[in-house]
Structure formats: structure tokens, C-alpha cells
Amino acid sequence: MSLDPTYRRGVILVTAATIIWSSAGLLARIVDIDPWTTLFWRSVYASMAIMAYLAWRDGRRLYTGFLRLGVAGVAMGVCFALSMISFIYGLSLTSVATTLIFQAAAPLIAAGLAFFLLGERVTRGKFIAILVSFAGVLVIVGGAPDLRSLWAVGVAAVCGISYAVTVVLARARPDVPTTEATVFALLIVGLSTVGFANMSLPGWQMAVMALFGSFQMGLGLILFTTGVRLIPAADAGLLSVLETVLAPIAVWIVFGEDPGSATLIGGSIVVASVVAVGVMERGR
Predict the structure, then answer these.
(1) Three-class SS string for the chain?
(2) What total number of domains does the chain contain?
(3) Residue 185's domain spans which residues?
(4) Would you say the pTM of this structure is higher than 0.70?
């Protein structure tokens, strides 16, 4: 039995987006520059790429989406900006694996928040998965050898929580254009880091920053937002877990980065919980 062409196209697009997103840790390690410079130039090139996509997609109606952001769209932009800042800052403090594990847990965090804030139903299986993933996080926190490591874990947790809030806001207001909200978030990141960023990077580092912004974030987001409309949310969630698996492997192969046993054990628990929820949702 052949797959539906629309479904196949959606799977290919979301998988491609996830693979592209998984290059974040590798690109951050290659340039080895301060997080504020990385954040600024990444936001510049990502916003250019996404605006070019919006211009191609919407033509003369380019700015109508921004006019529909409203308070909810601004809130989404602020939360997503905080997630991006804590993600890049977290990469400068701890391993790629630790940072991405909290991001992988974001769907479960969002499910819990949606239950309390929006009254969304949480199945027994999802509730158990949330508790199990929380146990995995405790393993990671318990493995922090000192206060600096604990601070790094806290920053990574902020990344996951703020992204989860962004997801909940998107669920609460599906009328808000998420791509335009992302551009607004990139504007916040750029303005908040411009005073601390290095404006005269060597040519090769600037080329990596262009790749980081336009390819890793810009193209990844475009592919994901296009493909996620073509497949069930549970399938998209399962495919997105690939990022959490591929990114640490890439950094380990190239730079020999060891995330530590606590992160590996706790991360495995979190990823297994996310996958279990995705399988259950897909079955339903």
C-alpha cells in the first residue's frame, strides 16, 4: 500500500527541517564566538531569509500578517525570543545534548500548561509521560557537579519552558500568523543583543553566521511550517525528536563532546517519554 503523496511530502519536509535544525550545535561550536554575537547575526540572517520567503509567498500582502499579530502575537514573539536567547546562551554554558533535551521536553511541558491554562484534556498516558520526563530532568539536575553546571541546566530549562509557552499561545490563538510572530521574535533578539555583538567578524565566521541564520533557522522553519500542515501533529512531534538525537551525535563525532552520564540517562528518559506520547497520539 503506497503512502498518500501529500502525507509523504509532509514527512519529507518535516524530516528535512529537523535534520537542518540539528546542525545548530555543530555550527555554534565551529565559530566559537560569544553568544551575543551569535544571537545578533543569526537573527539578522534568519529574518532576511524568512522575509524573503514571506515576500515570495504573500507578494503585495506581505505586511498584512504583521498587522494581525495583536497582543497574542507580541506575547508569542517575546516568549520565542526568550527561548532563542536561552538556547544559544545555554550552548555556551553546557553540552548540546543538555540544551536540546529541555527543548525536546517542550511538548510535554506545553501539554501540562495547556491543561492548567486552557483546560485542554490530558490523557492518562500523557500525564504519566509528563511525570516520567520530569524524573528524567531531575536526573540531569542531580548530575550537575557544581553551581555553574546547575546554572547552565537552569538556562536550558528556560529555553524549553519559554518555547512551551509559545506553543500554548499558538494553540490558544490559532488565528495569529506564527511566521510573522517569529520575525518579530528575531527583531527582539537582534535589538537586545546589538549592543554586545561583535560587528567585525572574520569572513569565514560571518559565512558561518549566514549559514546559521538563513539555512539552519530560516530554511528549517520554512520547511517545517510548510510540512507540518500536511501531516498529523503527532507525526510531526515524533519526527522532531530526531533533532535531539542527531545534534549531540554530530557534535560528539566532530568535537568529541561528552554530555556526561547524567545527561545521557536523563535525556534518554525524556526522549522516550516524548516518543511514547507521539506513538499514543498517532494511534488515536
Answers:
(1) CCCCHHHHHHHHHHHHHHHHHCCHHHHHHHHCCCHHHHHHHHHHHHHHHHHHHHHHHHHHHCCHHHHCCHHHHHHHHHHHHHHHHHHHHHHHHCCHHHHHHHHHCHHHHHHHHHHHHHCCCCCHHHHHHHHHHHHHHHHHHHCCCCHHHHHHHHHHHHHHHHHHHHHHHHHHCCCCCHHHHHHHHHHHHHHHHCCCCCCCCCHHHHHHHHHHHHHHHHHHHHHHHHHCCCCCHHHHHHHHHHHHHHHHHHHHHHHCCCCCHHHHHHHHHHHHHHHHHHHHHHHC
(2) 1
(3) 5-283
(4) yes
Q: Which three cell numbers stand for residue 220?
A: 528549517
Residue-wise pLDDT for 254-279, tens only, equals 888 877 787 778 778 777 777 776 66
